[in-house]
Amino acid sequence: MGKNTKAATSGRELGDILHPSEKQASQTQDERLYTEILDAILDHRLSPGVKLKEDELADIFSVSRTVVRRALLRLSHDRIVDMQPNRGATIIRPDVRKAREILGVRKIIEAEVVREATRRATPEALAELRRCVENERDHVQRQQHGAGLRLSGDFHILLSALSENSTLQSYLMELVPQTSLIIAMYQTPQHDLCSHQEHFDIVDVMATGDADAAVASMAEHLQHLEDKLDLDNERSPGDLYAAFAHVKSAKSTK
Amino acid sequence: MGKNTKAATSGRELGDILHPSEKQASQTQDERLYTEILDAILDHRLSPGVKLKEDELADIFSVSRTVVRRALLRLSHDRIVDMQPNRGATIIRPDVRKAREILGVRKIIEAEVVREATRRATPEALAELRRCVENERDHVQRQQHGAGLRLSGDFHILLSALSENSTLQSYLMELVPQTSLIIAMYQTPQHDLCSHQEHFDIVDVMATGDADAAVASMAEHLQHLEDKLDLDNERSPGDLYAAFAHVKSAKSTK
DNA sequence: TAATTTTCATTTGTGTACAATCGTTGTTCT
DNA sequence: AGAACAACGATTGTACACAAATGAAAATTA
Lengths: 254, 254
Fold this sequence. Notes:
The structure is a homodimer of 254-residue chains.
Chain A lengths: L1 H9 L3 H5 L10 H14 L8 E2 L1 H8 L3 H13 L3 E4 L3 E4 L4 H24 L3 H19 L3 H18 L3 H21 L9 H13 L2 H18 L11 H4 L11
Helix pairs in contact in A: 3-5, 4-5, 6-8, 6-9, 6-11, 7-8, 7-10, 8-9, 10-11
The structure holds a DNA duplex (30 and 30 nucleotides).
């Protein structure tokens, strides 16, 4: 169900590419939960800090807590949810330091990804990348920003698949959802984050076969993403003190 | 228990550094199993391809299968064991392609790690690194090659901890055990793989503060490791055809 | 005898029940 | 009135039992 939905929106079954080494871990049931929660995060339907209660999820998806637990365990290993010993699972809220770290790691990983992908770029692969970006553009133009943002992530993951490096791909499959949470926390309202034009640019540079230029193009793209975020002051949605900081008699720090 | 053993042999509780973000995921019980299996792999007491039956592990460690299952799930996410839907868990056997890929990723990751670690290197940190290598050297000199190899991995992980990049650190904590399995499969008997001298060299270069030189030193170190392995022909321990390939009437390929 | 089918033992997947823990609320005492 | 304390409810941790699936051995048939 969840995967069908994804296939319908992305126009192609990206899941087949995404989970060659993940599907091994579980059977079929928690895969759905895992994907569903992940999609909700990528679509910004689930926000950083949200508590994921096992019973509720079990109810919603009509599965037992055993299945829920496995899905949550996978998400926690991906550093997308945070599990505390007797306190359950919550979606992570990356602080500014962590956000910078994740974006920094992406620059390193994706430099190598785009270099290898350029080396291996066939006309078919380039066409597939273009289709992916066109899909992203179409969704954004239809004001479906949630799906657009998710498809934006799919572009980066597809690129990592084309690099044929499953290790780097698995890293990116964790980093992309984490980035989605960072965007949710630190996006500035005025800017349009969906920079599909830059995705087109990257593909165009890749088509020339100039790997160094492609790497530079990707670096620029990721830097733009970081620049559009407000990483200067700590956000604390859920922190009542921060939310009502304007009220008089603020209790200093903490 | 498992961690105490580790502390006794490494002379320092590295576990405290290693698990700041892992411990969150589980309570305390499966942590022991996870660490114990990981240590066994790092010590080469568990070989690639070994089947890990849930009931047996539950018996050995006197826990329920629920706990075993969680530990195995974590190991499978680390790509250290392979879980097939109804066929249980086995320790992975990286093929040549995968081995090269993992070593390649290590070069990328550790270049950044050693660069950052050099930037942040305090005299105390350098002393700690030297203690770590001295410990490694002592164990190798006492013919305790299993522990020596494990401590060799600890050096790299300690370095990643000093880089203060928890994302890269978590990658390395997966890559080091994977490398241990690669060494187990592809090591050449004549060579001595425990190159603690090169570890000393890296620390010395770091002490000069020349980050680029430190990166080069690390790259050289990892290249030496790869050179010492026999990655030219596929190994298949467990594949009887490969083991008895010299016998007449070999059934062609496969 | 060789191939196919059937049976069975082993192992894993899933659900549920019970125990333990934590946070919150309400109470009591100073 | 404020703070410490106690009890409750809600949520998670663990174990066990049963169902499903797999692989191999045994039996049947040609």
